[in-house]
Every structure is written in C-alpha cells, then in structure tokens.
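FW: tagging you since you asked about this chain on Friday. Here's the raw sequence from the shared folder, copied in full. Didn't touch anything.
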Amino acid sequence: MTRLSLGIPKLDELLEGGIPRNFFVAVTGEPGTGKTILCIHFINKGINSGDRNIYVTTEESKESIITQAAQFNMDFRSAIENNKLIIIDALMGTKDQWSLESLDTSTLVDKIIEAKKSLGYGQARLVVDSLSAFWLDRPAMARRESYFLKKVLAKWDFTILVTSQYAITTASAFGWGVEHIADGIIRFRRMTRDGVLRRYLIIEKMRQTNHSLNLQEIEVLPGEGLVMRGPVSERREDFALPKKVTDRIKRASEMSHDEPQ
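HL: got it, structure written out here
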C-alpha cells in the first residue's frame, strides 16, 4: 500500500508510515488547536516529494497561509512560482484565477479540478481548510456536501485533508458530516493546565491502518511547526465531547438523513 507522509515523522510512525493514498481524512477540533499547521506540513511534504499540491483556504487569506508556512521555514511562495502549489483563496473574493467568489461546493470542485489540470498529471495532495465554511447556514447538509466532494474528486488521484471545527461553547454543528464519510479522523483538542495552554491530538480512525490509540501531546514551535511530544496519561474519556455536544451531533445526523437525496 502506498502511504503519503504528513511531513511529521513521529506522527507518520503512529500511522504505519502515513495516510493511505487517495484517502479522504477529516482533521477536526476547536479553533487554535493546530489543524491548519498540520495541513501546512502535509502540503510542504508534497512540495518536497514532487506531488501536485492544492490548498483551499476559506478562513484565512492566501497571504496568511504563505506567511504561516514561512514561520516554519516552509517556502510556499517559491512553490507557487514554480507551479508546485496552487492556493485557492475562498475568503477574499478577489477576481483572479485562483479565487472563489462564492462558497458553493460545485464551484469549489470545478476550481480544484481546474487547478489539478494546471499543475499536471500525477499524484496530488489537497487541503480544504476549512470545509465547514461551505455549509455555514445549513449545517444539516454537511454529510451530503462532504460525500459529493469525496465522490467527485476520487477520480483525480487526490489524497485529501479537510479541516472542520466545532466550538464547545456553542456546540456548533459543523464538521460532523465530514466525519461520517471520512476514511480517517485526526482530532485535535486543547486545555489549560497549571495556567498553560496545552494541545493534543488523537487518531480516532484510519482505515486499513493499525494506528496508535494513544492521546498525544503536541506543541507548535517557531521554525519547526507541529512537534509531537509523545503519549499522555489522560484517559481518552477525559477528552471526549460533552454530552450536550454529542446530543447535537446526533440531531444533526438525523436531520441530514431527512434531507432529500
């Protein structure tokens, strides 16, 4: 089986070498937990490996993603100039070739395919950060829209990371449709201990992979990016979603089933 490295060796080790080629992986969690940084690592590894790379940003501008990558010594600007990377900006709404003026999944898929054709034939990596933005006003459609994206892009040799986020304080129903249809789920969490913000991730699912089941502490360092600190002693249950949130997940799932297909 061909696996694609995430660009973080210690994380790859927990996945038997990386993500299986052509998988659709959900990267979920609260804002500020490290999802975007993982995606930047994934794309940077693709640049260095000779893959075709597309990054769709919906919550930051193209320049913001380039700047973040530079903080970790990853040169996205040169990759764009050398036709190794296309960043599709779905936030700013500018009228250039690689911008989206509306958040519509059909338009998104068309633009991604156009970008793939521009980059050329070969193994491709795709990030959509975040996919939640495409159903802001209709969260019950999350599962249906995610399935459409996965089904269409499966024909184009993409290995895909899509981020989705929820906020515990609002129990927002974003992202759960993504998790239902994903081949893998990497979940990020955060908490404060002794007055210090700590970040964690756990691999909740990865098909065809004997992956780690341990909660892992992570850190984000200037010049390095996401660094794995190793397993922690907290139980998985200590990081489970609150009951009010799981209740909302259940209701959102039921609503998605009621939507006309």
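FW: The radius of gyration is 17 Å.
HL: agreed, and The domain at 3-258 is CATH 3.40.50.300 (Rossmann fold).
FW: great, closing this out.
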